């Protein structure tokens, strides 16, 4: 469960980071090249699906899918909230 | 589409918030029951004998009730709960000790499962079943809002993670509305659709009527395998409950029953409906077995359900969360809160984007909606907390003006809710700050009162397993108190900043 949560969180973070607007928030003055963006997007999607596989294996098909669907929403919200307050926490470089 | 989203949201948003809020609390309705009914904070016996339910059955027999529903104690509800019709014809709920079978003192409260939970699906409006229809309409509108919201959201992927709390109130509110809406969309859609599907027989009576005409019972028999027989009008004793359960289990194989429903108690034609608990599957499926009360023979058992019924029970199960899965229970709670945030920010955005314009034009629209929004968002939270505080402040058996304890709590809830509306109207824009502080104070008061009146303070509650529900509620209340205080401070600060900049502009 914890592993799946971590994977989901990492997956959404990668997907968020693949957007040029959000990338600029995470890495100051960073420039996101097109190929890196696509790679991050794929990696993020793979992580999201991997967490589904883990949950289905540990919780069974119906509970696993349900837990995954719920966690998918919650972890995405967590990423959005962290991104919102991140620039204030990390010192500007 | 924009127009549709805006106006259906403003008109029904307040009701939707109340329904979502009560639904979110209903996720933990049994835990709220434990909190509000201190006598029921009991440990389950290691070995439960179904014969422990005998005294509850005898009490119903003495009251000459035509039937009695006995709920088997479980982890979340560790008491034997019995429902029967009293001599005055009204249904009454009684609780019995799961170890000794002795009746527990009446707690004089409707608690979570008889006030908060019915509020979620019927608003407790019983006249003409109006509550169900209003909730049904809100469910339909929620789906309309979800669809139209997606359509009018122009940059759904570009703004997927965008939340800018540092921006102006209006922009930040819209961001939060989008984040809560888009990222929680699967939950919002599934929960509204499943809510409607549960009550399909009420909202689409023609679907049953078209096939079964007037014979609703035949529908029950065919769809869910129910069994009925008339009383024999000869007295007879009921066989042991353990025998009945053993017989029912011979049909299911594994699994314990979650309730035993005795029809015609004390009669030779008494029969018991035993229902297998569905806590290990998502689907709210019912496996019923009917056992003869006098002989202990099997009368009937539900056949495997047909695809339509299986689908309906699965969708209902998604909504009811009667399964045993604590992680999912908390996830539903969090997603329910996200739904509340979605609705509240939607209403707030409407007010924020019109306040100045309406003030200049001398229109009262924004002011009215703001007062209603405050009362329906922070107001319902305050009313719920007042309901809990009243519960702990009133002594057992209290009554005032001929109103019993349980009803006083309900009156208190509605009275406080009305007061929050008056306060919101009279204090205008400052109402949010005042009501946030009230939430914070009431939440702390509820935790303190619980500790004083029952002795189950947070530390004690964490140590004892049977008090975990109490610990969970106390901890959640304390977190709510902190969050509400932070919100109040933040609002007060931004108000000061706005006032200073206004003065500077004036000077």
From TrEMBL, chain A:
Keywords: Membrane, Transmembrane, Transmembrane helix. It comes from the Bacteria. The keyword Membrane applies. The chain crosses the membrane at residues 36-56, 63-86. This is DUF3325 family protein. It comes from Bradyrhizobium cajani.
């Amino acid at each position: 469960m914890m592993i799946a949560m971590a994977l989901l969180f990492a997956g959404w973070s990668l997907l968020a980071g693949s957007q040029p607007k959000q990338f600029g928030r995470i890495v100051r003055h960073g420039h996101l090249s097109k190929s890196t963006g696509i790679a991050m997007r794929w990696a993020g999607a793979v992580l999201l699906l991997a967490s589904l596989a883990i949950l289905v294996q540990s919780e069974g098909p119906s509970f696993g899918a349900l837990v995954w669907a719920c966690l998918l929403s919650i972890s995405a919200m967590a990423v959005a909230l962290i991104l919102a307050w991140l620039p204030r926490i990390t010192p500007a470089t | 589409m924009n127009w549709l989203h805006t106006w259906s949201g403003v008109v029904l948003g307040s009701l939707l918030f109340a329904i979502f809020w009560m639904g979110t609390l209903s996720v933990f309705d049994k835990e709220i029951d434990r909190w509000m009914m201190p006598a029921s904070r009991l440990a389950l016996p290691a070995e439960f004998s179904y014969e422990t339910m005998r005294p509850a059955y005898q009490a119903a027999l003495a009251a000459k009730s035509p039937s009695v529903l006995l709920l088997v104690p479980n982890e979340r509800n560790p008491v034997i709960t019995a429902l029967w019709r009293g001599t005055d014809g009204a249904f009454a709920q009684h609780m019995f000790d799961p170890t000794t079978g002795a009746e527990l003192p009446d707690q004089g409260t409707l608690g979570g499962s008889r006030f908060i939970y019915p509020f979620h699906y019927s608003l407790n409006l019983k006249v003409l079943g109006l509550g169900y229809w209003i909730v049904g309409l809100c469910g339909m509108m929620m789906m309309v809002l979800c669809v139209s919201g997606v359509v009018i959201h122009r940059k759904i992927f570009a703004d997927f993670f965008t939340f800018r709390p540092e921006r102006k109130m209006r922009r930040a509110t819209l961001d939060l509305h989008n984040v809560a809406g888009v990222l929680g969309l699967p939950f919002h859609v599934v929960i509204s659709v499943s809510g409607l599907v549960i009550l399909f027989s009420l909202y689409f009576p023609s679907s049953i009527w078209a096939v079964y005409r007037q014979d609703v019972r035949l529908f029950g028999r065919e769809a869910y395998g129910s069994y009925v027989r008339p009383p024999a009008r000869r007295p007879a004793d009921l066989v042991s409950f353990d025998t009945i359960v053993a017989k029912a289990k011979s049909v299911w194989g594994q699994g314990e029953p979650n309730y035993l429903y005795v029809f015609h108690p004390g009669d030779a034609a008494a029969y018991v409906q035993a229902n297998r608990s569905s806590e290990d599957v998502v689907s709210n499926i019912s496996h019923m077995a009917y056992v003869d009360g006098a002989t202990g023979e099997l009368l009937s058992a539900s056949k495997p359900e047909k695809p339509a019924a299986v689908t309906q029970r699965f969708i209902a199960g998604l909504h009811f969360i009667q399964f045993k899965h604590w992680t999912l229970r908390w996830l539903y709670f969090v997603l329910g809160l996200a739904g509340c945030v979605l609705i509240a920010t939607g209403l707030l955005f409407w007010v924020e984007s019109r306040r100045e314009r309406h003030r200049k034009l001398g229109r009262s629209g924004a002011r009215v909606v703001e007062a209603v929004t405050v009362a329906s968002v922070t107001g319902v939270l305050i009313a719920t907390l007042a309901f809990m505080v009243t519960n702990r402040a009133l002594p057992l058996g209290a009554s005032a003006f001929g109103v019993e304890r349980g009803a006083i709590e309900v009156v208190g809830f509605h009275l406080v809710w009305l007061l929050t509306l008056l306060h919101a109207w009279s204090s205008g824009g400052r109402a949010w700050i005042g009501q946030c502080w009230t939430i914070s104070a009431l939440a702390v008061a509820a935790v303190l009162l619980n500790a004083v009146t029952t002795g189950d303070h947070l530390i004690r509650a964490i140590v004892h397993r049977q008090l975990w529900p109490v610990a969970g509620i106390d901890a959640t209340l304390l977190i709510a108190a902190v969050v509400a205080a932070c919100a109040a401070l933040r609002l007060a600060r931004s108000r000061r900043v706005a006032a200073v900049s206004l003065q500077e502009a004036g000077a």
